UniProtKB/TrEMBL annotation:
InterPro entries: ELP3, Elp3/MiaA/NifB-like_rSAM, Radical_SAM_C, rSAM, rSAM_horseshoe, rSAM_sf, YhcC-like. Its cofactor is [4Fe-4S] cluster. This is Coproporphyrinogen III oxidase. Residues 328-375 are annotated as: Disordered. Transmembrane segments: none annotated. Residues 43-290 form the Radical SAM core domain. GO terms for molecular function: 4 iron, 4 sulfur cluster binding; catalytic activity; metal ion binding. The keyword Oxidoreductase does not apply. Keywords: 4Fe-4S, Iron, Iron-sulfur, Metal-binding, S-adenosyl-L-methionine. It comes from Rubripirellula amarantea.
Length: 375
């Protein structure tokens, strides 16, 4: 959400926020949520844009380390060696992404290198270091424009070696790790073929907290079989586990995926728009007010998207969500109840990363075909 978009919301007097003493700076504005664009602006003093990078990683849910086939909604046919040899080099991607953003927006103060597709901590750790440091190191060439990293990954892919590396990078720069949590309900994770459990998510965040990087949860609403009450249980877990940020997505189906086939055959239905709007507001009312809301919906290119089509109208969807908040006179955190055990007091557990994943990450060497820079 950009600042302009966030500014469109109009709310009555802010209600008291249970479990949170004092006001947060985002509440001084008119937005009902702690929007990402504003949070970045406050942190860096100007407009920050993410530039997406495909570093050529694959996924343990695709290559057989934990499962094959991948998640039912994920078009992972592209996570193959042939894709990796065709990949634009990381440096080229980053520089051309920055140029594209600069052409679109006149005032951009900095960029976050966003390692987005596949599982971006699933490679030998020294190779991860090389690729992340390459992105941050480009500052020498482009005058400190890259303000940090965002790293998308799975909760079962962060052994201690990876967390130590990210902690080290976070001591020098902004780093956000985005975990694909999706839901707290294991039956739904099985339905999606995630090949990890919610216990894996708890293990990852309890080992990630307090290391100096931001921790973001990617959550999907509208999973078939999940009731409203189940989705609200996932919302409550955001505060229990102490996530710093959240990305909310509606479940959507794209061509070439198992979910796409189910939707085309009529076997599975997507959530309708009005229900999604109400569910997002219910969800955000239950998460802590300080959590940064990075997204409130997801979509795909229109030629790949099967259903729901309404998610393509992002601006109008956002306005509807803001209007629902205004109608209720509530905002993010209005119904938040702090957990009995504050997240920072939760014990740090032993690392439960599956051995099959750890073998890939903690081995010496590098993925054979990953191309990172001109050589
Ligand atoms: S874990 Fe992520 S990258 Fe892997 S198959 Fe699922 S959605 Fe795709």
């Amino acid at each position: 959400m950009t600042n302009n978009e966030a500014d469109r919301a109009c709310l009555p007097e802010s209600p008291a926020l249970p479990g949170h003493s004092g006001s947060l700076s985002w509440m001084d504005g008119e937005s009902p949520i702690n929007a990402f664009g504003r949070a970045l602006q406050n942190r860096f003093g100007g407009r920050i844009q993410r530039v997406s990078i495909d570093a050529g990683f694959t996924c343990p849910n695709v290559d057989g380390a934990v499962a094959k086939g991948g998640c039912n909604f994920c078009d992972n046919r592209s996570f193959s060696p042939s894709r990796r040899v065709r990949l634009q080099q990381v440096k080229t991607q980053l520089l051309s992404g920055i140029q594209t953003v600069r052409e679109r927006y006149k005032k951009v103060s900095g960029f976050i290198a966003y390692f987005q597709p596949a599982t971006n901590t699933y490679a030998p750790v020294e190779q991860l270091r090389e690729v992340f440091e390459l992105a941050l190191g480009l500052n020498d060439e482009i005058q400190d424009e890259i303000v940090g990293l965002a790293i998308g990954t799975r909760p079962d892919c962060v052994p201690e070696s990876v967390l130590s590396l990210i902690e080290e990078l976070a001591s020098q720069s902004y780093v956000s790790v985005e975990y694909g949590m999706q839901t707290i309900h294991d039956a739904s994770l099985v339905w999606m073929n995630r090949a990890h459990s919610h216990a894996d998510m708890i293990n990852a965040i309890d080992r990630s907290r307090g290391r100096g990087f931001e921790i973001c949860a990617h959550v999907i609403l509208g999973i078939p079989g999940e009731s409203h009450a189940m989705m609200m249980e996932t919302a409550i877990e955001i505060g229990v586990l102490g996530f710093d940020a959240i990305k909310l997505h509606n479940l959507y189906a794209v061509r070439g995926t198992p979910l796409g086939e189910e939707v085309l055959s009529g076997q599975t239905k997507m959530m309708d728009r009005d229900e999604y709007v109400r569910t997002v507001v219910d969800f955000l009312e239950r998460i802590p007010p300080q959590v940064i809301v990075e997204r409130i919906s997801g979509d795909a290119p229109s030629d790949f998207l099967i259903e729901p089509k309404w998610c393509l109208e992002k601006s109008s969807l956002r306005l509807s969500i803001e209007a629902e908040f205004a109608k209720r006179g509530t905002r993010q955190g209005s119904q938040y109840q702090p957990p009995g055990l504050p997240p920072e007091k939760r014990p740090v557990p032993a690392d439960k990363t599956p051995a099959s994943i750890r073998e890939q990450i903690d081995r010496r060497g590098r993925l054979p075909v990953l191309k990172m820079q001109d050589r």
